[in-house]
Amino acid sequence: MEFNDPALEHLVNKITVALNENNKEDAAHYMDIIIDKYPEVANILMNSIEFQNIMAQNEDVEGEEASDDFAIQPGSAMELDEEKIINDMNAMLDIEPTTAQEYIQKGTVLTVTEEYEKALECFDKALELDENNLSALISKGNTLELMEKFDDASKVYDDVMNTEVEEVYDLMSKGYIFEGHQRYNDALKTYDKALQKERYNANILFLKGSCLIKLEQYQKAIDSLEEAIERYSENPYETIFELENAYHNKGVSLHAIGEDDDALEAFSLALGLNPEYYYSYYEIGIIQEDREKYDSALKNYNKFLEYDNTDSEVVEAKERVEELLKE
């Protein structure tokens, strides 16, 4: 499942990780957030092939390693939510929407069942009721992309970028679309507008910092990312980014301004939080290669390639260092 919403994408990824780790408490917590903030997507998620496969794998593990500590007890939040969501989704296609939100919900379900034309009709109906509904526009653009109608999708995203919005969530979504179309200055202005409303929102600070990297405004990026990291602990369940993402991006910015010792520390912190965040291995390799520490550089390039051996840039870096070690 793919989403044009960084917060939603993060929450779905967190559920997947939690279920793969058999951590149903966290999975239920993240699902509760999705149910509250994205009810139509909760319907889809619980019935998606990916989610059902993960649940099946999880149940197989439980069968082999049964434990009262990990079993979902009758009446638990996860069980009750799943039953409710499945019932809601089954009923969704039968309703006759009357509000923009109901049309969006039905259109989203139709998109998942690959009834794209009917889904587009729902999104258009929602836009007839509320022409500036950003959720309807983004959902329509996403559906057109799934239909491989990329020119039509691009026109819809143009409408997204031209729509005036005031809510923080809408501003974040709009900024994210700007970034996807490489309109980084417009994205930055949108994030700044969101920060005027919620000055200490860790999510906006993270998105702003990451956008500033693309604009090569590295010191400002560092400042924004450091503040995002500081604010992260206030409510980690509500953040759209992993802490290692922020440390990694901070390291990229520090390396760009020549602060390589601090950059290495940031990359190490990222890997300390998640040893499988392999992007940091490449960045460490680059710094070590610049310092002519070729053995260390090669080790880090190889570590990256353990996770992704198709990245041509890293493959070339590895081959380059191997040649230097022969000299």
TrEMBL record:
The protein's UniProt keywords, in alphabetical order, are: Repeat, TPR repeat
Repeat keyword on record:
yes
Gene3D superfamilies, per the entry? Tetratricopeptide repeat domain
**Segments annotated as TPR repeats:** 100-133, 202-235, 244-277, 278-311
Q: Which Pfam families match?
A: ANAPC3, TPR_1, TPR_8
Q: What is this protein called?
A: TPR repeat-containing protein
Instruction: Say which species the protein is native to.
Output: Methanobrevibacter ruminantium (strain ATCC 35063 / DSM 1093 / JCM 13430 / OCM 146 / M1)
